[in-house]
Amino acid sequence: MTYGTVEPFFHQGGFVRVVQKFGGSSVADAESIKRVAKRIVDTKEQGNEVTVVVSAMGDTTDELLDLAQRVSPKPRSRELDMLLSAGERMSAALLAMAINDLGHTARSFTGSQAGVITTAKHGDARIIDITPGRIETALGDGDIVIVAGFQGVSQSTKDVTTLGRGASDTTAVALASALKADYCEIYSDVDGVFTADPRVVPGAQQIPEIAFEEMMELAANGAKILHLRCVEYARRENVPVHVRSSFSDKPGTWLKDASDIKKKESGMENPIITGVAQDKALAKVTVVDVPDRPGEAAQVLETVAGAGINIDTITQNQSVSDDTTAITFTVPQGDLTKALDALAAARESIGFSKTLSDDSVGKVSIVGVGMRTTPGVAATFFKALADADVNIQLISTSEIRISVVIAEGDVDKAVRAAHTAFGLDGSDAAVVYAGTGR
Amino acid sequence: MTYGTVEPFFHQGGFVRVVQKFGGSSVADAESIKRVAKRIVDTKEQGNEVTVVVSAMGDTTDELLDLAQRVSPKPRSRELDMLLSAGERMSAALLAMAINDLGHTARSFTGSQAGVITTAKHGDARIIDITPGRIETALGDGDIVIVAGFQGVSQSTKDVTTLGRGASDTTAVALASALKADYCEIYSDVDGVFTADPRVVPGAQQIPEIAFEEMMELAANGAKILHLRCVEYARRENVPVHVRSSFSDKPGTWLKDASDIKKKESGMENPIITGVAQDKALAKVTVVDVPDRPGEAAQVLETVAGAGINIDTITQNQSVSDDTTAITFTVPQGDLTKALDALAAARESIGFSKTLSDDSVGKVSIVGVGMRTTPGVAATFFKALADADVNIQLISTSEIRISVVIAEGDVDKAVRAAHTAFGLDGSDAAVVYAGTGR
Fold first, then answer.
1. Could you tell me if the ipTM is greater than 0.90?
2. Does any domain span residue B264?
């Protein structure tokens, strides 16, 4: 059988060098580990060089966090990293054992042994460099390499670091780049990237190929398939990424450079819009009567950001009556109170009159490189929303994205309306979307 | 309070450098870990430099072994070591967290980070060298060092190795030697070394000080307090070892070079015999009519040893009737069948007539350096056994030990008889002996 992992256009010689990443839900128990081992061996037996990045089993990381909490209310991050990194170490060793039983030789490596060099920021370290000497040696010996994801070693302190939740994807892409792999496969419990969340849009279709920049916009605007950092890394290093399910053999979604995407190949009409993303649980804050002087807006936003709050969609409107402005932005619902408190504390110094807030708004974004060359996309989008009786509160755009902030209760119907308006509805309903497995 | 860890005769300057080892039962859960952390901090606050070796929490190692079994019937040892070593890594990190909460800085290190260099024999690696550079740096910074026990890194392959079950004790003693520590404390759930197993002899007394060679004889003849390897290492490197309970503050038993043991100090009369050890669950095998030619005995023993069976007490008797001999030895009860099968297979080539066996014998050993200079010890021992109506089947001796093989059912009364005969009975009954915690 083929997983589409040997598509000819990737061949660069006698074999393909591939990096595969399996999430925690794919190795949740002994049986899952054996099944994944079989899949890895199949890829190897197709003549490929295989390096695998694995996450911790199922809920291991959360269980270790609970254990840490029972021992220490606020565990030191260096020690927390030492504790948590054990999870991937265990799953990597177990996966290697299962592969060895299938007649192949697998060698597991910790992040440190794999040469994953990071910054010293425990719990959220960044990959500085990868020196895959031991991996190259193992691959040279014809072995299958298993790397514990999510971890590395600090360049400065030589201590064990973790890269933050979900960073096993980034580890895989970074390794693929360092190993000059032909591509990277991210296995989870979803079939790939869809034109919309199938739980919301039954007619949502799987996207065969998507441009890195489109995936970045989707990830940044609510799509939970891949972490933004991973997509950014793949784009920067131009590593083709195949997002697919470890529970089926169906091809998934390929992330590629826009120039590598062959049109018409997918069987769908070339869509102007590639996908519709949604982000619920947002809150809207409007700061009224901000003196319209340079730097005032910056003060407002810095005040909120200073409270560690992630600010999204920002708009500023000149007041017609006097020379003040109103600044409006969105924040995660859970951060609304914190944001309002921070603003109240800075009210005197900034000199605005009051704040207005709405604790239940959402965002709907349409994304597609086709937008660049197609006029009237915004008009089509807004008309679809109007026909669906959805009132637009804020608008923000990028070169390949248009986002609207609307009432939280309108998000689902807005997504469906946009999906239909841009001809993305498929004939047969997509499989049920089961979360990201990360 | 004092744990006796700062006894003046150990002072070698302004502070004492100590290595403490805590077994799995001492760190079985979050509460135990916090309690151990408190004890470590107390030692530190007495002005000591503290390095701690910790085992995996409670049954973690067995649980990981079960998990491995579910994934692979015969896991490759390299991967099993990668898996199992995660257990100590977790307990070390958790212990460091708990210490940090008490206002001290603790740094946990894996065996590899701690510089524990071993052979490449996975599952049963031996320590070749310890390069404690990172530990020295941490101690120099005033930190408390926590080292994951039971593990190291292979000098040749750079892979993670484990030292075999119970080897955390050996790790601690080896570290104490490499760090030139003043002494090493082994904490478990027993109060120390007793003159006999208190479960058998209510009047057994704790031994304040015992010579390395005596402890080696006790460990080699059934005492489960410390692993023989650990005691051998301590003796070779002359590292004083303090065996004590992590559940009380009472001083335990000091293992020292015989020349460092101050007589009369203990309050007991200087005993000729330091302790009585017992070893049940043995089987006795007699090979009859072995041709009395050089090398025949060796053939018999090699045949059994070749089956991977550990042979104990060996005796050979010249037959009076003809020129054949009978060779008798003991093996663990569980290995009896295997031993008899191996012998049966080699019967022709060796040329003996038959084997006799007894599947329920035991061994009682009296140990004491006092033996060297005291005549009549054997006579006293044998008379005590005779008075107790215990029939001696085999006898073996060393310079400081006399062992007898007897019926398994006679072991307990033989131990009590010997204990009384050599004046070891204490006035007040010892605390109940609670296993070794390893």
1. no
2. no
